[in-house]
Amino acid sequence: MSTRSPAHRTAAPESDWSAARIAEAAAELVAADGLPPIVQAGHPVLRTRALAFEGQLDAELLDALVLLMRRTMHAAPGVGLAAPQIGLPLRLAVLEDTWASDEESARARHRVPLPFLAMLNPAYTPVGDGRAGFYEGCLSVRGYTAVVRRADVVRAQWTAPDGAARSAEFTGWQARIVQHETDHLAGTLYLDRAEPRSLCANEEYTARWAQPTPERAARALGFSA
Ligand code: ZN
To answer: Which fold has domain 19-221?
Structure first.
């Protein structure tokens, strides 16, 4: 046991990659055969602050990278993927949630389809005080799921790949996806915000706690939902 206080937790360092290195790595990713592996927790790229997109990639390479990330997200399968998850410390994420979900869960989680979005340099701010706690997982933390309390509504700003400034409000599950992916770009994993006692191996989650809300899990495992 350590007496070190949580205040000693240090912020993620910023990536030191040059613009040329970003472009070179992106070109290698799109030229490779097949889909890139999704890097797992413990890889430092997931713990650094990604670099703002400032034109390091030309339009053609950016479009090819966005397409590759979308295909990688679909294949995983997942509802979001941030560039650091394929080893690239760039503030870029793709989001899309059009998977079938059972009606009761979808209602409890305020989960409605999210059409495909590619976000450069996204940022979000919570709207109001509404918070909701649900199990979520991450393609970079394979095999586990945990409850995260997150803002129910957020306003997000980002730049689209065509350079247009965008802003929109997201609610429920869509807001959760926006927060999770934007957090990746700051070197934050969902586990940093999770209820530690809610942590489940996927097998235990599926066998016991795959209900629309985590209330039963909270009572049994001893966390507040
Ligand atoms: Zn993730």
So the answer is: Peptide Deformylase (3.90.45)
Instruction: Report which of residues 10 and 19 the model is more confident about.
Output: 19
Is 195 one of the annotated active-site residues of the chain? no
Distance 89 CA to ligand 1 centre (A): 14
Q: Token pair for residue 101?
A: 């979900």
Longest dimension (CA), the chain: 52
Angle between helices 59-75 and 19-31 (to 10 degrees): 50
Q: What is the pTM of this model?
A: 0.94
- The C-alpha atoms of residue 82 and residue 139 are separated, in whole angstroms, by 10
Where does the pLDDT of residue 8 fall: very low under 50, low under 70, confident under 90, or very high at 90 and above? very low
Question: For residue 225, what pLDDT band results from cuts at 50, 70 and 90?
Answer: confident
- Per-domain residue ranges of the chain: 19-221
Q: How far is the CA of 46 from the centre of ligand 1 (A)?
A: 9
CA distance 57 to 69: 15
Place of tokens 């919570």: 126
Q: Which two three-digit tokens encode residue 82?
A: 């941030």
Ligand 1 geometric centre to CA of 175 (Å):
14
Residues 18 and 78: their CA atoms lie apart, in Å, by 29
**Average pLDDT for residues 157-183, to the nearest whole number?**
98
- Cβ–Cβ < 8 Å for 157, 130: no
Among the listed residues 54, 60, 96, 181, the single catalytic one is: 181
- Centre of ligand 1 to C-alpha 147, Å, is 14
